[in-house]
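Most newcomers find our protein records easier to grasp once they have seen one. Nothing more is needed to start thinking about how sequence determines fold. Here is such a record, shown just as it appears in the course material:
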Amino acid sequence: MVEPVTTSDTPWLEADAEPLIRIKGVSKKFGDFTAVNNVDLDIYQGELFCLLGGSGCGKTTLLRMLAGFETPTAGQIFIDGVDMVDVPPYERPTNMMFQSYALFPHMTVEKNVAFGLKQDKVPKDEIAERVHNILKLVELEEFKKRKPQQLSGGQRQRVALARALVKEPKVLLLDEPLAALDKKLREQTQFELANIQEQVGVTFVVVTHDQEEAMTLSTRIAVMDKGEFQQIGTPTEIYEFPDNRFVADFIGSANIVEGKVIEDGSDYVLVSTDLGDVHIDHEDSVKEGSQVWVAIRPEKIQLSKTDPGKSGPNHITGKVDDIGYLGEMSIYLVRLESGQIVDVTSPNQIRPRTKSQGITWEDEVYLSWESSSVMLLNK
C-alpha cells in the first residue's frame, strides 16, 4: 500500500510541508448557480480529511472535481504536484467509494475486489496477493466466496472499501460512506474506517453531512456553506473555537445570544445578554458598546436544584420547561425570567435510587458556567 511520506501528525502546521492536494481558487457554476465559490484548500499525505456541510453546500461537487467527474469553472487542482486540469478520471491517482457501494451482485467478494486490477491487466499472481492482503486488512477473508447479497450492510461497506484501496491510490475519495448503515453499525464502522486508513496510510477525503461522523473520523474538517468554507480546522478547533455563528450553531448544539460589550479588560470581556451579564476569558480587545454574540455549549453549563449562594456574571436561575431523557444523558430546556430558553445537557453518571428522583418539570434550577467555556463571536 501507499506509505505516508510525512512524519508529523500535524503537517498543516509545518512551514515546509508540501500538500498532497492543493486546491487554488476553485469555482464551479451550473448556469447561474454557483455550487463552489473560489475556495482554497491544502490536504496533506496521510490525512483523513472531511468536507462537512448540509445538502446543497457544494461538498459533493468539490469531491467530484477532485475525482475528475466535474470540471472547475475556474481555478486549479493539483495532486502530488501535478495539475489535474487535463487529466481524465481514470488516469488520476485517485479512487472513489460511492455511497451506494456499487458492488457487482453476480460476483463474489474476491472477484469484486479484484475487478479493477483485472481491468488494469495486473499479473494474476499479484492480483491474488493484493486481494488476499486487502481482505485480511478489512477482516473479510472468510467471506471471499460470498456474494454481496449474502453480506450485512457493514460487510458490503468493507468490500467497497477494499475494492477502492486494492488499486493503491494516492487519494481515496469517499462520498457519504456510512450513510446506508444504521446508527449503531455506523458508530462502530467509524472507528474501523479510521483504523484502516491509519494502517494503509492513504489520504482519505470524506464527504459527509453527519457532524458526529466528521468529528470521529477526521484529522481536519472543512465546514462548507453556500459553496464556501466557513472554517477549516481540527475537530477540537471547530467545536471549541468556531470562527462564526454558523459554525458554532452547525457543529453540535450551542446557546447563542446577542449581547453588548459593557467592559473590555486586558484578559476578559463582560457582555450584557438575555443570559444576564456574561464574563468571558478573552485576550483580544473588543470595543465597549459593540454588538457581539455569545455562545455556550449545553454540556458546559452546570445545573443544580441547590442554590450555590452565588450571584453576578455567569450565574442565572430558571424553571425546567422540558426534559429529554437519552439514557446516557438528559437534555433540559430551562426557561429564564426573560423568556430565553437555555439548552443544558447533563450526563447520567449515577443511577437514581427511585423513579422519581432527580430534576423534573417546573423545578426551579440554578445554572452556572466557567468564563473559559464561553465563546465570543464577532461574526
